[in-house]
Structure formats: structure tokens, C-alpha cells
Amino acid sequence: MKKRHLTTNQGVPVTDNQNSLTVGERGPVLLQDVQFIEKMAHFDRERIPERVVHAKGAGAHGYFQVHRSMKPYTRARFLQDPKKKTEVFVRFSTVTGGRGSADTVRDPRGFAVKFYTEDGNYDLVGNNLPVFFIRDAIKFPDMVHAFKGAPDTNMPSASSAHSRFWDFISLTPESTHMITWLFSDRGTPKSYRMQEGFGVNTYVWVNDKGKAVYVKYHWKPKLGVQNLDRHEATRLAGVDPDYLTRDLRDAIARGEEVEYELNVQMMDIADELKQDFDPLDPTKTWPENKFPLMPVGKMILNRNPDNFFAEVEQAAFCPASLVPGIEFSADKLLQGRTFSYADTQRHRLGANYLQLTINRPIVPVDNNQRDGAMQYGQFSGPVNYEPNSLGGGMPGEAPEEGKPRVYKLDGEVTRRKIGLTNDFAQAGARYRSLSKMDQEHLIDNLIADLKNIDKPIRMRVIENLTEADPKLGKSVAKGLKL
Q: Which residue has the higher pLDDT, 412 or 114?
């Protein structure tokens, strides 16, 4: 094996990596010890700010492959050829806990997929539960503040300060549906390999004729859905807080392929106002008997990251990363996410975070954006603007077929809640769809979490649960001796 020698970041040989430069054997360290300063300064900066949410994660590489062409529904090129394999990177995560939190705490799990397509990166950023706590992104900071560390004690709702969580939830009736999912055993999955994934928001697919249709995404695990009960999840949080991370990595290291099938639900845009709920409301699901799941393709995860920091920690996802053939709906939560995610990554990783290997597209990037922190692109010539003639007019605008569809918007400029909220119907239906054992677990989990909460907050929660299903509200109230 060829010998390798230590160097500084400038490539200068390091002849002594054991001792600082000092005045004499025991004297003070000199400021001119640039080797020490460089080494220590880099060490001081090894930890970047953690994500505000989704801080703790695990990741894996793999590929995606369609079963058949989706041409009738979308012109997205990576969804056309069944023979083509599109590289992907997936990051699983807990949502509210910090980077050192336990994997098995009750929490939604992030399920983010980066497709490295021939038209640039496409990020499908979702969760393991099909709905969310809120419907408008303007409430997202309030929600996260209520769930994270209290400003006076720094104790998060995920550990001992539950009152803040339930105070927000009880005053936000639209979250009732999410509670019936989160406090079932779905809130404590047994494995990232055994959980579903959902896009949560509504997107738009557009085909090459300009016809648009609403879609919702579903990932189905090949191994089926398996969960932990509250007691086992609590035990594992103490004895093996990295349980889900370890399970995923060990399975792939053993040579096992982790497989999911991508399905979509579709709805004609003309039918959106014919429902008894708002289809763009992310606190609602679309009934599968009316909007059946259509298989699209499979995703295989088969390679572990070589470096956790470079690949998992620096991986950056954003719902705004779309490719031609996939567009936004007017979902208020989605609209806010398109700004928030990328803005967060600019803060965490710097203006040029998309130049990092894990985030960089497989296709060339050519625009007039220059400079900024951590810029390592190589540029020459006097042109960094468009239109120009000094650079031969390059880079020029892309062909017309890449443009999004044209559609008409009409309405008042206003701040208003959507008219069709119907916040409790699906929550009740969800409860009644559970098996007797799952109903009992949901009730038991709610009681365990609510028993030490202030009585006025508990009463509001029970009122919301009763609106969803009288039996559910009565059972929780009885368990709390109210």
C-alpha cells in the first residue's frame, strides 16, 4: 500500500501532529502555530446547526423504477421507461426530537426521497402518516414552538412538558385526525423498513397534452406495516435509542434489499369541489374506495452511506424541487413548505448547499449565480448576467416544453380559513376503522399522555375527541376519571 502523509488543508506536510508549537518544552503555545489553529478551528466548526425539525435521521441509497409508463398522466421523464433505473437517496427521521433523541419516541417519521433525474433533482418530502397537524403553513412556527423545548425550561413536549403540546392541539381542532394516527401504534413504527410513506400534500401531474390531474403519493413497504406498542417503544428508547437507525443499516449491510412500492391516488381537478372535504387540506385523506391506489413503481434501497455527515446530515430536501410534469397545487401547507425548506438549508449549510455531492443533480447546472459562502464552482469570463452577447448569449433559456401549464386564478386577496373544514368526520372514521386492539391501544396511549395535563386542557381534548366519536371521547374521559 502506498504511504500517505499528513498535510494541512493547504497541502503542506505535517511533520509533528502530537505537540503544539511552544516557547520551550513547557512554555505557552505560540499564535504562529498555524497547524494547531487550522486543526482546532475546523474542529470547532464540525457541527452545523441541526434541523429545527427532522433533526435525527438515517439514510440509504438505491434506485427507483416504474412498472409502466405514466405518460397518460405526466410528462415527467423519470416516470416513462420501465427499463430505466433512477438513482435515489432516502432520509428517514423523527420530526420533533433533537439530534440526540431516541428513535422510538412517539412522533411522526419523515420519509424524504431525492430522485436524481435527467431533468434535475425531484424531492418527494413526506411522512409516515398520511395527514398533518395543520392546514396552513403560517401556523407551522407556532406548532413547532409548542412541540419543542419550552422557552423557560427548554423541556420539550416529547419528554416531560406535555401541556404545551396538548394546549396547542386542543385549540387546533383540525389536528384531531392526526392525533388518531399519531397516538395509535403507527406513532411508534418497528422499523423504517416496515412503515408506509405519504406525500401528505396534494400535487399536480401534467401530461404532454397539458391535461392536469391532482395526485397524492403513497409508499407501501414490501415487508408490510409493523409497529411497536407504547411499552416496548419506551423500553427501547432507554436500552437502544438508535434502534431504527441500526435496524436499517444492519439490514442493508447484510445484503437485504429494502423495497417500497410507490402508488398514487388521482382526482380530476373538476371534481375537487364535489367532495365533503377539501381535497387540498393536508389534515384529510382521500377515500380509497372513491380514489383507488394505482401502482407506479418500486424503490429499492441497497447501499448504506459511507459518511453519515456528508450524506445524511448534509442531505437537503425541499418540496419546491420539482421536474417538468409535476407541479404544485394550491394546498396552503405545501405553498409555505416550498419556501421554508430551502431557506432552512441555506441557513444550515450555506448559500451553495446544492453544490454538495449528496444534493448535486446528475445533470449540468448552468446559470449566472455566483459567489456566496462555500462557492467552489469554477467560472471564467466577464458574463454573469442574461441576456448577454459577450458570452454568445449563453446560457440561454430552455425550450418551451419545459414550461409549467397556464391556468387561470380568480378570487379576492384575503386571509381566511377554508370554508369546508369538516375537522372531525375523518378522525371518527379513522377510529372506527381500527381493530378492537388498536382502538384500545389508541385510548391507552392518549390516557397515558394526558393524565398529567392541566384539567382545562384535558377537557378541550376530550371535547374534540367526542366530536370525532362519542365512544372515543367517553373512553378517554373515563380513563382520566373525568
A: 114
Catalytic residue among 54, 61, 162, 441: 54
pLDDT score of 159 more than 80: no
What's the residue count for the chain?
482
Residue of 128, 162, 164 whose CA lies nearest to 54: 128
- Alpha-carbon span 157 to 86, nearest angstrom: 39
**Per the structure block, which three cell numbers stand in for 66?**
416504474
Q: Tell me the backbone φ, ψ of residue 334, rounded to 5 degrees.
A: -60, -45
Q: Are strands 109-117 and 212-221 parallel, antiparallel or unpaired?
A: unpaired
Give whichever of 16-25, 357-366, 430-439 has the largest mean pLDDT: 430-439
Contact (CB, 8 A) for 98 and 57: no
**What is the C-alpha separation between 464 and 177, in angstroms, rounded?**
10
82 touches 206 (CB < 8 A): no
With DSSP H G I counted as helix, E B as strand and the rest as coil, what are the percentages for the chain, rounded to 5? 30, 15, 50
List of E strands, 222-372: 258-267, 294-303, 326-328
Q: How far is CA 194 from CA 5, 113, 191, in A?
A: 45, 16, 5
Q: How many alpha carbons fall within 13 Å on the CB side of residue 184? A: 23
d(CA 116, CA 159): 38
Domain residue extents for the chain: 57-174+188-355, 425-479
CA proximity to 130, closest of 216, 12, 67, 244? 216
Count of CB atoms situated within 10 Å of the CB of 171: 13
Check if the beta carbon of residue 399 is closer than 8 Å to that of residue 258: no
CA angle 160, 166, 167 (to 5 degrees): 110
Q: Say whether 54 is catalytic.
A: yes
Q: Which of 121, 127, 352, 445 is catalytic?
A: 127
Which neighbouring-strand residues pair with 127?
Answer: 110, 198
Quote the CA–CA distance of 90 and 61 in Å, as a whole number.
Answer: 6
Distances (CA, A) of 246 to 88, 241, 251, 457: 20, 9, 8, 38
Which class in CATH covers the domain with range 57-174+188-355?
mainly beta
The CA-to-CA distance between both ends of the chain, in Å, stands at 73
pTM: 0.93
**423, 211 contact by CB (below 8 A):** no
87 Cβ neighbours under 8 A, 6+ residues apart: 61, 62, 63, 115, 116, 362
